[in-house]
Amino acid sequence: MIHELPLERGTLHGHFSRDLEPVLTIDPGDTVRFATPNAGWYLDDETRFEPIASPQDDGHALAGPIAVRGANEGRTLVVQIDEVAPGPWGETFGDGVRVRWDLADGIGTALGRRVRLAPFLGVMGMPPVGHGVHSTVPPRPQGGNIDCKELVAGSTLYLPIPYDGASFSAGDGHAAQGDGEVSGTAIECPAHAQLTLDLRDDLSLEWPCARIDGAWLTFGFDRDLTAAAWKANEGMLDLLEREHGLDRPEALALASVVADLRVTQLVNDVLGVHAVLRDDALT
pTM value? Predict the structure, then answer.
């Protein structure tokens, strides 16, 4: 079944909290279509979504929360990214300077330059276990502001469910971004998206992982970049054991030869690293 979330006050929020009532409850395998303003709650250059309140809306404008029936603690939420369509404009900030982008036909234009667009949602995830208001800025084991440019349409994100119900939210449209997101912003744009949410019992995770075109990704987040890298690497060793039947020392040896560690982002309070295993790396 396909569900539509209207872009209105009742379907948007700017923080994570398990105390928020779901705006929609769906069955596993259902699809949700929604739209969000850009990360700063702007619908266009001059129009900011209203009303918004502080501190509840100090973070990214997110659609949801969406509850999934049967999404119990210990299971894995499967987020299939069916479509992400950017709006006609976006903005990037660099050391206090705003750069406005015109977005059309898969191309972004600014500063007399053109870049190819690869739209994705920067935030996809669930609240942490504790009650109260939690910032949307840092990514966590249950997802959130992952800001991985690889999670375009056709990709699938896998998230460990922290508590019963899941309370999944998404937003933060990015028309394009480089690994690292070094200024703290991508091309931040309003977006329309379609996601299909499902569940798995046969995939036990401590940190997110993803399936993209031709590769697996595993993620790690930490205030220390080295620690984030090792968390991503541990996830890759788990994947090699699971998908290829290796024991841990064999997985470590193989990962050292065929897996790549990349900086996802450097700017979200905690740092992100993703490990990449291309399908064609193993024959």
Answer: 0.96
